[in-house]
Amino acid sequence: MEERALHVFATDGMALDFPYARSVVVVRSQRTVKRTQQTTQEIRYYVSSLDPEERKPQEWHGLIRGHWAGVENRNHWKRDALFGEDRSRSRNTNLLTNLALLRNALLRVLSRCFHGEPIPVIRERIQAKPSLALDAISS
Known about the structure:
By secondary structure, the protein is α+β, with helices and mostly antiparallel strands.
């Protein structure tokens, strides 16, 4: 079971060092695992360029969930499915950041060279003919 409370506050973007910020959104959530009855609480903060009154609470929730769903679906899933990103055992922040940047760049190159083909198809084509990867990188 999960309960969420959302609060939106007007802010001066320059005070936050986010020049276009107009709102700070605070989401407090409390989750209880039925099986163990263990309860956890979490507070998350978001910054938005929208004025606080531009959206109703449910719309703010929708924006937040939609943003993170998009990040997961468009970016992280591809990096993990194609490159096995989640299997990394390193905890070195610099290494992980650099590898993520390389993976993002490579995904961009592959999407241009393979014109929107699905990831599994790209993977199979490259596995069958590894020179395609070199051709894509050098193009």
